Amino acid sequence: MRRTVFPHKLLPWLLLAPQLAITLIFFYWPAAQAFRQSVLREDPFGLSSQFVGLANFRKVLNDPAYLNAAQVTVVFSVLVAFFAMTIALFLAVQVEKIVRGKGLYRTLMIWPYAVAPAIAGMLWLFMFNPSFGTLAWPLRQLGINWNPLLDGEQAMALVVAAATWKQISYNFLFFVAGLQAIPKSLLEAAAIDGATKRRAFWTIVFPLLTPTTFFLLVVNTVYALFDTFGIIHAVTSGGPGKSTETLVYKVYNDGFVNLIMGDSAAQSVILMVIVISLTAFQFRFIEKRVHYG
Questions:
Q1: Residue 40, SS3?
Q2: Do the Cβ atoms of 236 and 150 come closer than 8 Å?
Q3: Taking every annotated instance into account, which residue ranges of this chain make up the domain ABC transmembrane type-1 (predicted)?
Q4: Which fold has domain 63-259?
């Protein structure tokens, strides 16, 4: 293997400096500030503060509203990750069967990923608005009393659908790339041996896709926990009755709306620990089932 030798020892650090600065300013510095604020009790204007230790954490963990947000987050994250990955895998498999127009099909599938989360949420809200939504009218004709602005379960279904639709394109790209990397000779050999397409998929294709699936599992979990804030804010604002208030949205509500800085900081630290622990668990236990060929 060829080694790269830089003419000056300082040059590698200069090349890394922009990325290191971005990581320090936008990741480590906010995390450090969150840890500092989580052990303080501050007034909304930051004019005075008092060290309270772990009191903010105890208050948050004993708050029924926070426990409700945790339950909502679990349900929301599982549903979004499952449907976004399942539908994307199905579409990726189907596109491989297309002979003509495959490039156009892929392009149309990728487009939704360019839509901002808040815009995606507004699109779904306009389509399913109980008063003037174009897709709400057929639901009423079917006898469904559709009103996600008042019904918590319907609101959850709406934000899950919007978040899933937004993420399908991302998953689709990686699944298509994974399918193209599978040697065609394996599928041809399976067909010669008499294996059906369904059996070939579950015994050959899916096991070889497990590295891609594992990567997307981690990415979709983080997406559901953090990147869906804009969708929830645009569609339901955490309502009705906090039925769609996730952990990240509660951090925003307590910190930026209600100006309870200590509680909001403690919640962000807890959420950070949850994400790190969940990612470590996925790498430690789920990765063992991944086949890298």
A1: strand
A2: no
A3: 74-282
A4: MetI-like fold (1.10.3720)
